[in-house]
Write a structure and sequence with these properties.
binds zinc ion, 147 residues, alpha/beta, 7 strands, globular, two-stranded antiparallel sheet
Length: 147
């Protein structure tokens, strides 16, 4: 069963959740029972959730810094979702809306979007700007996956 890690928006606990195929699964937080909103295996993070997830996730976390007004970001979204499903259990794919939460991208000096950055245990391991096709994305991410 494929799984990923999500951070609870209420209590900020990092939870391991199963991704059920073809079903509308609504996993809950193991600590406070808040229902998670995960779109096809990709969680939208707020700044608190971002900090928690990149610090506590046992797996590396990729964050797609995007915004609703950005055409290339929206065009890239389906590729990102497909890749999240394929790499579930190996690396966590999440998103951060830079229009709603500009402070994180300012702090990380993210200039253009989409930008993808990989984090593990609070450290940024790598960053790439611009949309990628699925094979480029997978091969880039594979360098951060422990086999
Ligand atoms: Zn919770």
């Amino acid at each position: 069963m494929a799984f990923t890690y999500v951070v609870c928006t209420q209590c900020l606990a990092v939870n391991r959740v199963q991704l059920e195929k073809g079903e509308k699964a609504s996993p809950r937080c193991g600590r406070c029972s808040t229902v998670f909103t995960i779109h096809d295996g990709v969680q939208e993070l707020n700044p608190d959730g971002f900090q928690q997830l990149i610090e506590k996730s046992p797996l590396p976390v990729v964050v797609d810094f995007w915004a609703p007004w950005c055409g290339p970001c929206r065009a890239f979204a389906p590729t990102y979702v497909k890749t999240a499903k394929k790499l579930a259990g190996k690396i966590v794919l999440a998103k951060l809306n830079t229009q709603n939460f500009p402070e994180i991208s300012t702090r990380l000096s993210i200039r253009g979007i989409p930008t993808l950055a990989v984090f593990h245990r609070k450290k940024e391991l790598g960053r790439k700007s611009g949309a990628m096709d699925q094979s480029m994305l997978e091969s880039w991410l594979s360098t951060y996956i422990k086999s």
